[in-house]
Amino acid sequence: MASTIKPAKDLNAVRALIKKHKKNDRLFSVIGIFVIAALAIALLVLFLDLVIDGYPKMNLEFFSNFPSRKAEGAGILSAWVGSALVLTVTFFVAVPMGVAAGIYLEEYAKKGWFSDLIEINVANLAGVPSIIYGLLALGLFVYEFGLGTSILTAGLTLSLLMLPIVIVSTREAIRAIPVHIREAAYAVGATKWQVTLHHVLQYAMGGVLTGIIIGMARAIGETAPVITIGALTFIAFLPPAPVSEVMPFINFNWLDAGFTVLPIQMFNWISRPEHAFHINAAATGAVIIILTLLMNGLAIRLRYSIRKKIKW
Amino acid sequence: MVSTFNKAVLATITTVVTTSVFAADIVKIDGSSTVYPITEAVAEEFQKETGIKVTVGVSGTGGGFKKFCRGETVISDASRPIKAKEIKKCDEAGISFIEVPVAFDALTVVINKDNEWAKEMTPAELKKIWGPDAQGKVMNWKQVREGMPDQPLKLYGPGADSGTFDYFTEAIIEKSKSIRGDFTASEDDNVLVQGVAGDKGGMGYFGLAYYVENKDKLGAVKVQNKEGKFVEPSLETVMNGSYNPLSRPLFIYLNATKAAFDPKVKKFVEFYLDNAAKLSKEVGYVPFSTAEYDAIKKHYKTLKTGSAFKDGPAIGLSVKEILEKAAD
């Protein structure tokens, strides 16, 4: 490096130096491409393998049939409805709590040992193995609160899992907002809440949504905590509909219903002796990966379009 | 793919919306993953026929009894008899139960397709291989029997939570849960299949259904029975009782109060016993004889509670013996 500061005696030496550094640049980008390609290929191979194995089952009946002992007629209706309802609960619990907690910690909490402690804990929670949440939920929600093995319990359990992701991403998104945006708002007399609601949160929305969707994508594939709280394996009927024809048009009975979810259905099929069930399992796996990819794609798309709208 | 999915969503939203009131009384079943395929088949047919809702969970035999003795389920699937400890738990909660055998499973000892030397084995030889004393010592087939080739011995078996494991140790090692520690354990029998299929010196054991499905990859060991004959596991040999000691009965346990007073449960159990022969065969298990199912129905109708195994594990009991012992 020292040679670059000295006035170059020889122009060729400088050119050689530049050339060498450019070579390093290229070398690094080649390594980078290799690493990314290796990861992408691993995912692609995994996905294609599932799709090829599960292809014979990829039809409408697979989504509209209940599980069955006959692999050909078995479908994932109760599993995907269960997954959808559980994720609905998860969404409505984890998002308000997570975003509120993120805003509080970033905007309102006094910086000190206590907020440091909370910060460390939240970061740690994101790394706790999911089975631990399952055990916590079994003791707390199922037995202590008497919620039983229901969609509500599963939704709450998965929202515990998702909370740290939402909190951390909310905080990071808020932190990325330039301080003069706030100062400008304060300067024209806005209160703290107005600044937070009208400016900070608006501009941070892209990052917040990304965190939410990535958290949901993680929750959809979780098996361990849902098995721990006692999700069912065979259920050939649907929970009561959330919408009804009579007043008040919405009912919450479904929260109390038994359920199964996609990963459990897949797990059950893969452990069966008959090969035909393994095809069903592969198809279910492909569905889970497609859902995850769709959600991640949506996250990227939202982040992009929200970023584009912001002008400061 | 996406559009198919959307259509399915639309198609089923209509069903979701039209599904009316959620019946609070569902026949709730949980327990063994081994018994699950039979119960699932029965539940599927029963629900189609009567419209009564049935749910089946897979918490394992032990996990199932925990829920059963808390009154959370009315029927518990079990791949082994209830244990004294579990009976006590049920007693404390004031739950009495009826023990109902539903079908046989044949534990099958499997070897690699290329294994030509271990097609017939005695229980004593199996004990020599699997016993706790073999740990770190019996590592090669040539140590098992004079004349066997110099081939490393690789063992694959179910984990310690499995009822299959319990029964195998009771029947072969003659002591429950006593086994060598240095074998590859997996709760997923398909993993065991892969292990033995890919290893010339491999040996493992699991339920008959997994062997039947993988006959092209594995060989089954003919195990010497009480009469001294080497018998291959099959539908016939299990049914005529010649495949012993590795045939084991599978059970469902009924909450006695519900079985007596809840018409839905009653209907379900009757349906179960009427169809167990056909359906258990269909999912890879071995049914009892018609006479035996008749005896079981009679036993169930008298609502005799208690277990034939209250004094500990017993191997090789016939259906008749199980019913008689439970009754006294």
Describe it:
- The complex is a heterodimer of chains A (312) and B (328).
- With 312 residues, chain A is mainly alpha-helical.
- Chain A has 2 domains: 45 residues; 252 residues, MetI-like (MetI-like fold, Orthogonal Bundle), CATH 1.10.3720.
- Chain A is built from 12 helices and 1 strand, in the order H-H-H-H-H-H-H-H-H-H-E-H-H.
- In chain A, helix 4 packs parallel to helix 7, helix 4 runs antiparallel to helix 9 and helix 6 packs across helix 7.
- The longest helix of chain A is centred in the N-terminal third of the chain and has 44 residues.
- The radius of gyration of chain A is 25 Å and the shape is globular.
- The two termini of chain A are 38 Å apart.
- Chain B has 328 residues and is α/β, with parallel strands linked by helices.
- Chain B has 2 domains: 181 residues, D-Maltodextrin-Binding Protein, domain 2 (3-Layer(aba) Sandwich), CATH 3.40.190; 132 residues, Periplasmic binding protein-like II (D-Maltodextrin-Binding Protein, domain 2), CATH 3.40.190.
- Helices cover 42% and strands 18% of the residues of chain B.
- Chain B contains 13 helices and 12 strands.
- In chain B, strands 1, 2, 3, 4, 6, 7, 8, 9 and 12 form a 9-stranded mixed β-sheet that branches. In chain B, strands 5-10-11 form a 3-stranded mixed β-sheet.
- In chain B, helix 2 links the parallel strand 1 and strand 2.
- In chain B, helix 3 runs parallel beside helix 4 and helix 12 runs parallel beside helix 13.
- The N and C termini of chain B lie far apart (60 Å).
- At the A-B interface, helix 3, strand 1 and helix 12 of A face helix 1, helix 2, strand 2 and helix 8 of B.
User: Would you identify the CATH architecture of the largest domain in chain A?
Assistant: Orthogonal Bundle
SSE topology string of chain B? HEHEHEHEEHEHEHEHEEEHEHHHH
The largest sheet of chain A is:
none
Q: Which range best describes the helical content of chain B: under 10%, 10-25%, 25-40%, 40-55%, 55-70% or over 70%?
A: 40-55%
CATH superfamily of the largest domain in chain B: Periplasmic binding protein-like II
Coarse shape of chain B: elongated
What's the order of the H and E elements of chain A? HHHHHHHHHHEHH
Individual helix count of chain A = 12
* Parts with pLDDT < 50 across at least 5 consecutive residues of chain A: none
Radius of gyration of chain B: 21 Å
Helix content of chain A: over 70%
